[in-house]
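[job 4417] fold queue: 2 targets
>>> target A
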Amino acid sequence: MKNRDHPKKIGAVHLKELHIIQPGLQSLRLTRVRARSRTNSQTQAYVEPSKHPRVAAEKRRVASKTEISAKRPYAASAGDIATRREKALLVSEARFKRLLESVTSYVYTVTVEDGHAVSTIHHAGCEGVTGFLPADFDANPYLWYQLVHPDDRPKVIEMANEILSGTRNLSLVHRIRHKDGSIRWVRNLLVPHFDENDMLLSYDGIINDITERKEIEESLQSSERNLRLITENTHDMIFSMDLDGRLLTGNSSFKKMIADLSGGQEINSGDIVPLDGLSDRLHSQWWCNFERAIAGERIEVMLPIQLCDGAHEMECVFNPIATAGGQIGGAAVFLHDVTERIHAQKAVSTIVQCMAKTTGLESLSVMAENLEKCLEADGVVIGEFLDHGSGITIRAASLGGRAVSNTPYTIGAFQCMRIAEEPLCFHPKHGPWVFPEEAGPPILGMGSHLGVPIRNSQGTTIGILCAIARHPFKATPACIEIMEVMASKAGAEIERVRNEKILRNLCDQKEIMLREIHHRVKNNLQIISSLIQLQSGQERDENAASAIMAIRDRIQSMAFIHEALYDAIAMDTIGFSGYCDKLCHYLSEAYCPLDGRIRINNRVNELDLGLDQAVLCGLIINELVTNALKYAFPGQRHGTITVEFGPLDAETMKLRITDDGVGLPAGFLPEKAKTLGIVLVSCLSQQLGGNLQMECGNGTSFVVQFPISRPNRSSLGK
């Protein structure tokens, strides 16, 4: 028998030596060594542990690590260690909290003796579902029952009694109240455990939090109910067929249409969809579209269907239906009756064509008259709200064929249509806005009315378009659509009339200001002319006095222009004939006021001339007529000066000033003249875009031809 105190030899290493060096041999993992014996019970030669190669290498590594640690400049203090432990504890706590929040199920165990539950243990994870710890349940045996929703407690008790009576597996979905007060949905699955005599020993309850899934299910069920409600209450026909054309589902509108087509026959799921209301050609087209739909194509077509009350235009849409496996299992069909919409579009088109023949508020009267016929109403009123909001002005109305327009009307029955930021009147999404007489004072004696707001381009309600009747008004979608379109056009027309009025007022203000400017300019020029005349009376040199008087005449000619503009109807043109009369009379009075030996004939056409050309022509006439008065008739010679002005053709104007005086010296050329008057006339002719020509014979004639400017073209017809 081997001595227990003698160290065993395993792999040439003593076990006692291993226990000594094991803390430093972590990398070698020598915690467990199994000795292998050679055959014939031969033992290995004993090797000194300190001389073993692997042991020696490990000792050197440990010594090196110890030396490095001793050389570190920083050694952790006890406070640092505590801080790190505290941080690690917080991190661990946060991880545990996240893990706990993600737990959606846990297990509880109920021990049973003699068919009665004697104890309950709630295992880990209950906090994530209920908010309570296992210790809370241990402290209060009735806590679980208290958590169950009061309405669900009878079902929970019934399930517990069934499991105690021997039922194998039970499952119940019920509600519990979480510790935070929220209601949670859970699935409670009971798994019983029996002994060899089939006696119940205990059962495990698996609580699974299904709140999120339950909310999703309820949302889907609510959406399904809403969709079914919408489908059943819509006027559109909606149904689906399988690949053989047999009915799968159909809403009430579709079944009503089928009963109408088949004389009251009902259609059930699995029946072939009857199409008696279609002609042979449309019947074939229907099934052709159905075949394309079950091939995966979406089809939109218009189909006329003959019902009991006449022909109806149907907008038909075929959509393929996919099964759960992704295969096409049939087609869904949507039929929308657009008959009223088509009639409404035709009615609107007719009314618009009638309105196009008129303008302004007269077009609103045409709208009211045609709307009354189209809607079969007793009257139509187009009212515009007053700016201060105290009433409404009826811009146009047709009451039994009697036209009414621009009539003030107190707000009265329109009280419910008063506006602030938003109108309190009809809008299609709120349903038909129809109210009987007892709901408020009747409009102009009528009993009911259908109104839509009239809005401007900014969306502000500026009035009301109202169809009125003595009896309850039938507000069909077609009526609403027609009223809305007409209200939009009425709003545009009212806004246009308002803008035109504003522009007219602005133009009137500008015109008054411009007339005042011309009047003041004329007065200032008159003052300057008078001052120059006073100065000329003080001048003893005849040449200087003559030059000063010439300046006065030129200023006076421009003053007459501004005077004519002040009196003119249009502010951009003047009547040139009247202007020439006044200018020539002024010059005649200035240079031969008493004897009347020189007569001036004015042969200027009745036309309007633009301001720029009128000033230039006036200065030319002033220079040439003044020159003729001063030099063409020396001594007491009599004579005539003729001023002719008018269009030469459609593109050219001609100004001709002729006198029968002594004429100009032989060899006189206007372009070589050095006198200021002739030089000025030449320059003015060039500014008009024309040229100056001179003719000599029995007297002298100067001719200026220039192109007609744009403002003058439109006034030549006058």
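>>> target B
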Amino acid sequence: MCINPSDPKNLWLKGRKVIVPLVNRTVSVIEDDYVDVEFGTGCLKVTPAHDVNDYMLGEKYNLETIDIFNDDGTLSKEAAIYIGMDRFDVKRQIVVDLESAGLMEKMEDYTNKVGYSERNPDTAIEPKLSMQWFLKMQHFADMALPPVMNDELKFYPPKYKNIYRNWLENIKDWCISRQLWWGHRIPAYFLPKGGFVVADNIDKALRMAREKSGDSTLTADDLRQDEDVLDTWFSSWLWPISLFDGINNPDNEEINYYYPTSDLVTGPDIIFFWVARMIMSGYEYRQDMPFRNVYFTGIVRDKLGRKMSKSLGNSPDPIELIDKYGADGVRMGLMLSAPAGNDIPFDEAICEQGRNFNNKIWNAFRLTRSWKVSDMEQPESSRIAVEWFHSKLCSTAAEMDDLMSKYRINEALMAVYKLFWDEFASWYLEIIKPAYGRPIDSKTYSKTLDMFEQLLMLLHPFMPFITEELWQNLRNRKDGETIMNQSIIELVSGKYDEVLLADFEQAKQVVTEIRSVRKSKNIGPREPLTVEVVGTNPIAALNTVILKMAGLDKIVEVETKMTVPHHS
């Protein structure tokens, strides 16, 4: 029995022995902080064979382990009483017998954490000590910890390094056996008179068994292969190697070329089950890391913060979402709201935002394809717009390249999202758009198609379907051509005019302010206005853009501000 050493009400039991009711077994009183002082009497009956936490206490204090259960849930002879009775019948009978013996002080109902079978939801899980196969892990932990902590193998976001370190520094041996009817069967063969051998197949096992036992008359039928199968993760930890047959054929061309790979994208909830173990197996069998970077996505949760699961029934049907919002809409909406490693509170509104952006891209495509093209002279406003947007495109591409190198994927998506919606659709297309019924000059149109194509290439990793479709229809393509293998290196490394970008932001602000004045003074958007600039106009080079976008008649420089007469 265990008490908390800081529990004053039970200190009188320190160092004593107590008698277990009904079986009359004498047990010692031990002390440990694990016991909750506020729960019940503050005294815990420790049963190492039938509770995970009790087992840990048993290991810590070297307690006797008594397994009272048969495999069918009835009590074994080790229980001394109620032998052969079902566990649930015994729970009820004990109450009766304790009351009859005058040993029941009182009963209280409380909510207990009882595990239930996933396959049989009405079956309560009963912890039971059993023989299992374990893998010693300290050797693997010693290999796998330094590369991550030294940033030879990088985690994104890096906050998961501490979680990884804590697990490896407190590593426990890995139970690799499972009592299932499917999986890789454990290659251990038991001998008829005790002992076992481990071999690839029954023929090798028989040879080893004969050598071990000294009995040359043994046959394959005399050996019994363990019925357990290997833990699924024990197969999965070899995935980066076995994918290229690197275990059976360790020096083949494919594994020498592909191993180690660049990136692993996964969820933080399996950092121990899978990520750490793949790193371990990589250093054990290839003497090298399996991948250079690990990007941890967030976990999608419902509005209540619960993890999506089949049992809770709180996971939306992705096919229905795709039917409603499109694959790119769902994909883009989720990525836009998913900072690296942070959980994603799912709301259909984010998919709707993705669909709306798809519509924006499609409508911009339809608009540009609807224009008639002429070999007329290029308007000055269009020339400036082309120069400005090309600089903006190169600037954003460089920003995205930097963000992607840091695995800040949602920020990279937001950058190209704003570039398309706020700059290309809202400003560039409006500047170059010809008057109703008039054609667009061929020079501006050609540059517009070039830059639209480059926009699609920046968007493609996030929205693969609509970008491929529009890219194929933007120009005549050869058979087999695809946006997937188009290079954006020139775009990312392209030069851009920072002064022009800054000046253009001022010009946009001027247009916005003029539109605001029109609205507040109830002046129609087509009514010509004159803007006077006191002193030298710092952005005079952009006047043609401001004139068109603000609906102005002219922009003039004056020495002093005009005084407007007031009527009393």
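[job 4417] complete. Note on B: DSSP finds 19 helices and 21 strands in the chain.
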